[in-house]
Amino acid sequence: SSQEAVTVIGLGAMGSTMASTFVAAGHPTTVWNRTPGKAAGLGATEAATAAEAVAASELVVISQVDYAAMFESLADADLNGRVLVNLSSDSPEKLREASRWVAERGGTLVTAGIMVPPPGIGKPGAYIFFAGPEEAVTAHKPALEALGRVDHMGTDPGLAMLYYQAMLNIFWTTLISYFYSASLVGSAERLQPYAATMLSDLTEDGPMGFLRISTAAIEAGEHPGAENNLHMQAVGAEHVVQAFAESGLDVTVPGAVAELFARADEAGYGADGLTALVEMVRKPR
Ligand code: NDP
C-alpha cells in the first residue's frame, strides 16, 4: 500500500470507527484495546500488547476516555521516533503534562479534539482541532485527513482541548436550554420550528444576528445597552426562573443565568448591553 501505516489505540465508539476509516482509506492498520476482542470486523491487525501496537507504526492514533488511560496503556511502550496523536478528552493542563511525558520517552505528542460523533468521522464537514509541533502535524496530514479536516491551532499542546471545550460548552448549553424550554411548554415538537428559526437567525446578518453583533462588541470592549439594557434583562431572567418554578420544573440552568445577570446588575452594568456579562466571566467570584 502507498498509504502510511497507522496504529489505533482504544477501540471504543470513536477509536473503532477511526480504525475502520483508516482501513477503508487503504492504511495498513494495527489496533489495540485494553479489553481484548473489540477488533473483530474492523479489517485491522490486532496487536497482543500496546507496546506491540506502538512498534507497528510511526503514527499512533489514540482515542480513550482520558489521558490517564494513555499513561497506563503506554507505560512500557517504546515511544522513540513515534508520533502519538491523542484525540481523547482531558484538560488543557493535562495535555501539556502529557506532551512532556511523551517527549521524556523520545516520542512526539500531537493533541487533538475531534468535533464529530462516530458516524461523522471521515464525512464531509468533519473537522479536528490539532495542537503541538507543526512538523509532526504536517508530516501525517494526509493520513489524519481521512478522519476530517485538519485545523492546527498552534504549538501549545493545550490548545486542541481549549478549542474543543469552547465548542462543547456552546453545544451543551444550547441543547440543554432547548431541553429546558421544551419541558416548559410541554411539547418539543411545537417549540422546534421556533427554536430552529432563532438558532439560524443568531448566525445571520439581520437584527437578530447576535453572534456577529456580540463578536463586534466583545472585541471592541464596548457593551451598548440603549435598546435592551442589562437591568431589564436581569429582571426578565428572574421571571424565566419563576416560570420554571411555577411549572414544578428544575431551575438549575435558568437559575444560573439569572444569577449571572443579577451579579452584573449589582456590579453596575445595568445600563450596558448583554455582552457586559463577559466581565463577570473574566472575574470569577
Ligand atoms: P467509549 O466509552 O466508547 O470508549 C472508551 C475507551 O477508552 C475504550 O476503548 C476503553 O477501553 C478505553 N479506556 C478507558 N479507560 C482506560 C484505561 N484506564 N486504560 C486503557 N484504556 C481505557 O468512548 P468514546 O470512544 O466515545 O470516546 C473516546 C474519546 O473521544 C473520549 O475522550 C471522548 O470524550 C472523545 N470524544 C467522543 C465523542 C463521541 O461522540 N463519542 C465525540 C468527540 C470526542 P475498554 O474497552 O478496555 O474499556
From TrEMBL:
Signal peptide: none annotated. The keyword Oxidoreductase applies. Residues 6-150 form the 6-phosphogluconate dehydrogenase NADP-binding domain. Keywords: Oxidoreductase. GO terms for molecular function: NADP binding; oxidoreductase activity. Transmembrane segments: none annotated. It holds the Pfam family NAD_binding_2. Residues 156-283 form the NADPH-dependent reductive aminase-like C-terminal domain. Belongs to the HIBADH-related family. This is 3-hydroxyisobutyrate dehydrogenase-like beta-hydroxyacid dehydrogenase.
